Amino acid sequence: MVKKVFIMFLLVSAISFAKEKIIIFHAGSLSVPFAQLEKEFEKKYPQYDVVREAAGSRACARKITELKRPADIMASADYKVIDNLLIPEYAKFNIHFVTNEMAIAYTEKSKYADEINARNWPEILLRKGVKVGHSNPNLDPCGYRSMLVAKLVERYYGINGFFEKLFGYGESYENGEENKKKVVVRPKETDLLGLLEAHAIDYLFIYKSVAKQHGLKFLELPKEVSLGDSKLADYYKSATFKITGKKPGTWIVKKGAPMVYGITIVEHGDKLPLNKEGAVKFIKFLLSEKGKEIMERNGQKFIEPSVITGDASILNSE
Fold it and tell me: Which family does the entry's similarity section mention (predicted)?
């Protein structure tokens, strides 16, 4: 009898001390800073267990809208993914919180690594035997941004047909259509890091922040090409690429634009977030001075003040 009572006590104690989960779907490019945020957040709020799942931003959104996966927060490498795929049914607001820019990552063993520079990199990527990686444009913003960068190259460097010569795509990307002798595609940009480090590819279209976080060599692109300068918004618009829409058979035309990340609290139909209080606390922690320090340490510039669109009144409910 005493043994049974003791076991019951242990079970009750375990339940009372069980941590509340905060489920976060986020872009692969946020993996490193969000791991650090998780550690610091749980140190401040030990009652919570942050559970993160990284994927391409559009893939994250579709886990929520199509697969009906439970989540409290979604953070996207392109704020427009939240606007286009989650709002209004699965989210009510969008916070633009950090920026980034595109870069070309490589290693010392990449072909022509000793030659490449900001002037000749388009020509080197077109050379025979050079393998190039990018993420899937239909799943990951880094993928369609890679396409937009390649199109801006034609205008800035005056190289006619660069986009088609490099990728061989038309105005959109269908899975498996890449020239496998030249191009390697994976669901998200961080999936390609291992291939680069294993020398299975020579060059990788990737975010500058990710290249810095992983200690990679990378080529800084001219601001007219990098999608990293808010003053060049009109210039970037000249590049366009089609990606799949909300429903099968529909398309969204992506235009070049300065890179801005977005974050929101997920609402599941007519239900409130699974962990409303925890989600609000995490968002506020992200937007705090500590959150800013972590993001900027990892190569992503904080937007100050943060731009909030939609109804963010939930943030005042804590």
Answer: Belongs to the bacterial solute-binding protein 1 family. WtpA subfamily.
